[in-house]
């Protein structure tokens, strides 16, 4: 059976109107992966996150509990990311990327490889619908004023758009594909920007984050990561059932 999904204009498509490098890619046929997060979010409406709460808290069989690394409230710590309040579709997409070896992290690959599709969707909804205060704060010595400038205005001298243009004016994410950045652990944010830069992370269909990360200096990455850690945590995603 072929499923049909309504596709709306994403922030990336809107951004392409102002950023020629993105416009060229958007004008080409977008790969199906570009809509994966939206599709996973639709599929997740058919699972009940309550059925996967024990899996998240305690694990099952060879599957480690999510809480053992990400914390009971999904806030993360150090280089382990916050999950609470990230969108369902984004979390599910990342789990699939780990399972398929598209995104590299040995611990996450071990766990994701053992999860069923429904377990990935259920865990994604479980954390998306979790409300938790921030436990993050600046710790990398970043210039907070520079971080704020990059978030709000970007820096067109180095061809970097405002982070808010895709991730929302509160950095709480937009739709399913553009994740919340607010209250994320700064060490994790910094590590991901570095991974986009050196190719260790490469699961963005349009290579958008690769281009931005390459343009940022190391000091800029620390500034952005520390500034994001000062922002209020995102609200929980509204339950769909």
Descriptive overview:
The protein is mainly α and 241 residues long. It is globular. 42% of the residues are buried. The chain has helices at residues 11-16, 20-27, 36-44, 53-58, 67-70, 88-99, 106-112, 117-128, 144-152, 164-167, 186-198, 208-215, 218-228.
Look at the structure and name the CATH superfamily of the domain at 39-128: Cytochrome c-like domain
Q: Could you say which structural class the secondary elements and strand pairing correspond to? A: mainly alpha
* Quaternary status: single chain
The CATH topology of the domain at 39-128 is given as Cytochrome Bc1 Complex, Chain D, domain 2
Mean pLDDT: 89
CATH architecture of the domain at 39-128: Orthogonal Bundle
Total number of helical segments?
A: 13
What is the radius of gyration? 17 Å
Number of strands: 0
Distance between the termini: 24 Å
Low-confidence segments, given as residue ranges, are: 1-9, 13-31
Tell me the strand percentage band. Answer: under 5%
Question: How much helix, percentage-wise, in residues?
Answer: 40-55%
Largest sheet: none
The global form is globular
In N-to-C order, the SSE pattern is: HHHHHHHHHHHHH
CATH class of the domain at 39-128: Mainly Alpha
Domain Cytochrome c: 54-131, 142-232
Protein name: C-type cytochrome
Keywords: Heme, Iron, Metal-binding, Signal
Signal peptide: 1-23
């Amino acid at each position: 059976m072929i499923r049909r999904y309504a596709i709306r204009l994403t922030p990336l498509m809107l951004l392409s109107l102002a950023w020629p490098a993105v416009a060229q890619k958007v004008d080409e046929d977008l790969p199906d992966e570009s809509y994966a997060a939206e599709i996973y979010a639709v599929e997740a409406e058919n699972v009940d996150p309550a059925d996967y709460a024990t899996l998240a808290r305690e694990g099952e069989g060879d599957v480690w509990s999510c809480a053992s690394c990400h914390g009971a409230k999904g806030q993360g710590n150090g280089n382990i990311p916050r999950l609470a309040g990230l969108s369902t579709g984004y979390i599910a997409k990342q789990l699939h990327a780990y399972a398929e070896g598209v995104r590299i992290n040995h611990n996450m690959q071990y766990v994701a490889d053992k999860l069923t599709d429904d377990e990935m969707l259920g865990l994604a909804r479980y954390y998306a619908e979790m409300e938790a205060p921030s436990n993050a704060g600046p710790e990398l010595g970043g210039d907070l004023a520079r971080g704020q400038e990059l978030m709000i205005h970007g820096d067109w001298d180095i061809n970097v758009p405002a982070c808010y243009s895709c991730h929302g004016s509160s950095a709480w994410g937009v739709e399913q594909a553009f994740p919340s950045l607010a209250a994320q652990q700064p060490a994790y944010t910094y590590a991901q920007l570095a991974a986009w830069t050196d190719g260790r992370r490469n699961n963005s269909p349009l290579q958008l984050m690769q281009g931005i990360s390459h343009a940022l200096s190391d000091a800029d990455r620390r500034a952005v990561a520390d500034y994001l850690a000062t922002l209020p945590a995102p609200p929980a995603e509204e339950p769909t059932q």
